[in-house]
UniProtKB/TrEMBL annotation:
<dbReference type="Pfam" id="PF01370">
    <property type="entry name" value="Epimerase"/>
</dbReference>
<dbReference type="InterPro" id="IPR001509">
    <property type="entry name" value="Epimerase_deHydtase"/>
</dbReference>
<keyword id="KW-0413">Isomerase</keyword>
<feature type="region of interest" description="Disordered">
    <location>
        <begin position="351"/>
        <end position="371"/>
    </location>
</feature>
<feature type="transmembrane region" description="Helical">
    <location>
        <begin position="43"/>
        <end position="63"/>
    </location>
</feature>
<dbReference type="GO" id="GO:0050378">
    <property type="term" value="F:UDP-glucuronate 4-epimerase activity"/>
</dbReference>
<dbReference type="GO" id="GO:0032580">
    <property type="term" value="C:Golgi cisterna membrane"/>
</dbReference>
<protein>
    <recommendedName>
        <fullName>UDP-glucuronate 4-epimerase</fullName>
        <ecNumber>5.1.3.6</ecNumber>
    </recommendedName>
</protein>
<feature type="region of interest" description="Disordered">
    <location>
        <begin position="459"/>
        <end position="482"/>
    </location>
</feature>
<feature type="domain" description="NAD-dependent epimerase/dehydratase">
    <location>
        <begin position="119"/>
        <end position="349"/>
    </location>
</feature>
<keyword id="KW-1133">Transmembrane helix</keyword>
<dbReference type="InterPro" id="IPR036291">
    <property type="entry name" value="NAD(P)-bd_dom_sf"/>
</dbReference>
<keyword id="KW-0472">Membrane</keyword>
<keyword id="KW-0812">Transmembrane</keyword>
<comment type="similarity">
    <text>Belongs to the NAD(P)-dependent epimerase/dehydratase family.</text>
</comment>
<keyword id="KW-0520">NAD</keyword>
Length: 482
C-alpha cells in the first residue's frame, strides 16, 4: 500500500474513532494543562511570598522605629492595657457597660456636699489630673476619672496614682478620649456638670519623634471631648481644659499675657495646643459650649512627670549621671498645689453652657452667650534652671555633674514668664509656693517613692522608671514641656 494511502487511512481512523485514540489524546492534553496550571499556581504563590518578604525587609530597613514600636506594644501581655493606642480601643466600649457599671458611675459622680460639682476628669492618672481629682474628692465633689495609661512615661507611676485615687472613692476608667461610644455612655449614665479635660500627649521634644501621637490626642481627642459635651450630653457641661504656656512660642514680651499674640509656635506640641484653642472657639460659637482654657507654666511637685527637668535632674544627681543645662534658660516653675487651686477656681466660676444638647435643638439662651475664657496659671517668678539644679543639690546632699550647652532648635524656648492678672481677678488665683519650698516637698516624696537613702545620697543608686537600677551614665537634658 502506498505511503499516502496509509496516512489517509490513519487520518480517517482518527476521525471515525471518536471514543478511541482521540479520547486518549484529549485526556493527555487535559492532564498536561492541569499540570501546567498547578505549576503556574505554585510559581505565583512562591513569587507572592518572596515579594511580601522583600517588602517587609525594605520596610524594616527604611522604618525601623515603627517596627520596633509595634513589637514593643505587643510583646508584653501584662502591659497591654498600658500601651493602648491613642486612637482608641474597643475594649473600653465592650467592658464599660451594663447596669452595675452605670450604678458605679452614678455613685462616684454624685456630689457629697450641697452645691457640689459633678466632674468628669480626663487624664485623671496623669500628674495634674491626679492632684485635681484628689482635691475635688476631698471637698465633696463627685469625680469620675478616665485615662488611657499610655507608655509615654512609666505606666506604673500612673497605676500607683490610680490605686491611690481608688482609696479616695475616685474610679479611673482605663479608656481613651477618642472612644466616642464610651463618652456617650458616661454622659448618659450621669449628667456631669463639668468636664476637666487634662488628657493630652505632653512633651515638646517628643513631638519631633512621634508627631501623629500629638495630633491624635491633642487635636482629635479634644474634638472627641467637645463633641460629647456639646452634642451628646444633655444638659451640656462646662468644659475646663489644659492648654499650655507653649502657645506663646517665639513671643519675647514679658511677662506673657493672654492678650499677647500666639500665632508663632516653636514646636508641634505648641501648635496642637494653639489649634485646640481655635477649636474651643468654634465649639463655643456654634454650640454655646462653656469653655475655659488654662495655660500651664512648667508645673512641678510630688507625683510629677519623670520627663520633666526637675524630676530627671533629681534622678541624675542621685545616680551621679551628667546633667546637661541649656545656657541662660529660665522657667516660671509653678508648684502643683497652686495649679490645682487655679483649676478648681476655673471650675467653680465657669458659666453654664447655653447651646444644644443631645436633642440637637437650639435652646433659648437665658443669660447671654456661654463664656469662652483663657487664663495663665503660672508662678510669675522665672528662675534660671541652674538655680533649680542648685536647690536639688542642696536637698539631695550631692553635687551635680553639670554640663552647659547652647540651646538647640528642638522646640524649647529661652524663658517663660506668666502674667496672672486675669486669673487673679476672676477667681482669686495667687501662687504662694516658692521654688525652694516646692522642691523640698518634691524631694520628700521622691526619696520615699523610690526608696532612696537620702542620708547617704552620694553612694545611692536610684531606680529607673521601670524599677531597675540605673548603672549606665546618661546625660540628662532639660525638658521645657509645661
Amino acid at each position: 500500500m502506498p505511503a499516502s494511502s496509509v496516512v489517509d487511512a490513519a487520518a480517517k481512523g482518527v476521525k471515525l474513532d471518536r471514543h478511541g485514540g482521540a479520547a486518549v489524546l484529549l485526556r493527555r492534553a487535559s492532564g498536561a494543562n492541569k499540570h501546567l496550571v498547578s505549576a503556574s499556581s505554585h510559581l505565583l504563590f512562591r513569587a507572592t511570598v518572596l515579594a511580601t518578604l522583600a517588602l517587609v525587609v525594605l520596610f524594616t530597613l527604611h522604618y525601623p522605629s515603627l517596627i520596633s514600636h509595634s513589637f514593643h506594644l505587643s510583646s508584653s501581655s501584662s502591659r497591654r492595657s498600658s500601651h493602648r493606642s491613642l486612637l482608641g480601643s474597643s475594649s473600653s466600649s465592650t467592658s464599660y457597660r451594663g447596669a452595675t457599671w452605670a450604678r458605679e458611675i452614678r455613685r462616684s459622680a454624685a456630689p457629697r456636699r450641697d452645691g457640689g460639682l459633678s466632674v468628669l476628669v480626663t487624664g485623671a492618672a496623669g500628674f495634674v489630673g491626679f492632684h485635681c481629682s484628689l482635691a475635688l474628692a476631698a471637698r465633696g465633689d463627685g469625680v469620675v476619672g478616665l485615662d488611657n495609661f499610655n507608655a509615654y512615661y512609666d505606666p506604673s507611676l500612673k497605676r500607683a496614682r490610680q490605686r491611690l485615687l481608688a482609696t479616695r472613692g475616685v474610679p479611673v476608667l482605663d479608656a481613651d478620649i477618642n472612644d466616642a461610644a464610651l463618652l456617650a455612655r458616661l454622659f448618659a449614665a450621669w449628667p456631669f456638670t463639668h468636664v476637666l479635660h487634662l488628657a493630652a500627649q505632653a512633651g515638646v521634644r517628643h513631638a519631633m519623634r512621634a508627631p501623629q501621637a500629638y495630633v491624635a490626642s491633642n487635636v482629635a481627642g479634644l474634638v472627641s471631648v467637645f463633641e460629647a459635651a456639646a452634642r451628646r450630653a444633655d444638659p451640656q457641661p462646662a468644659v475646663v481644659w489644659a492648654s499650655s504656656s507653649s502657645v506663646y512660642g517665639l513671643n519675647t514680651d514679658a511677662p506673657f499675657s493672654e492678650d499677647h499674640r500666639t500665632d508663632r509656635p516653636a514646636s508641634l506640641y505648641a501648635a496642637t495646643k494653639k489649634a485646640g484653642e481655635a477649636i474651643a472657639h468654634a465649639y463655643n460659637h456654634i454650640y454655646g459650649l462653656s469653655v475655659t482654657g488654662l495655660r500651664f507654666f512648667t508645673v512641678y511637685g510630688p507625683w510629677g512627670r519623670p520627663d520633666m527637668a526637675y524630676f530627671a535632674f533629681a534622678r541624675a544627681v542621685v545616680a551621679g549621671d551628667p546633667v546637661t543645662l541649656f545656657a541662660d534658660a529660665r522657667r516660671d516653675f509653678t508648684y502643683i498645689d497652686d495649679v490645682v487651686r487655679g483649676c478648681l477656681g476655673a471650675l467653680d466660676t465657669a458659666g453654664k453652657s447655653t447651646g444644644s444638647g443631645s436633642s440637637g435643638k437650639k435652646k433659648k439662651k437665658k443669660s447671654g452667650p456661654a463664656p469662652l475664657r483663657v487664663y495663665n496659671l503660672g508662678n510669675t517668678s522665672p528662675v534660671p534652671v541652674a538655680r533649680m539644679v542648685a536647690v536639688l543639690e542642696e536637698l539631695l546632699g550631692r553635687k551635680a555633674n553639670k554640663r552647659v550647652v547652647a540651646m538647640p532648635a528642638n522646640g524649647d524656648v529661652p524663658f517663660t514668664h506668666a502674667n496672672v492678672t486675669h486669673a487673679a481677678r476672676d477667681f482669686g488665683y495667687r501662687p504662694t509656693t516658692s521654688l525652694e519650698v516646692g522642691l523640698r516637698h518634691f524631694v520628700e516624696w521622691f526619696v520615699r517613692y523610690y526608696k532612696i537613702d537620702n542620708a547617704n545620697a552620694a553612694s545611692t543608686t536610684t531606680t529607673s522608671a521601670a524599677g531597675k537600677p540605673r548603672s549606665k551614665r546618661k546625660s540628662t537634658a532639660m525638658s521645657a514641656a509645661s
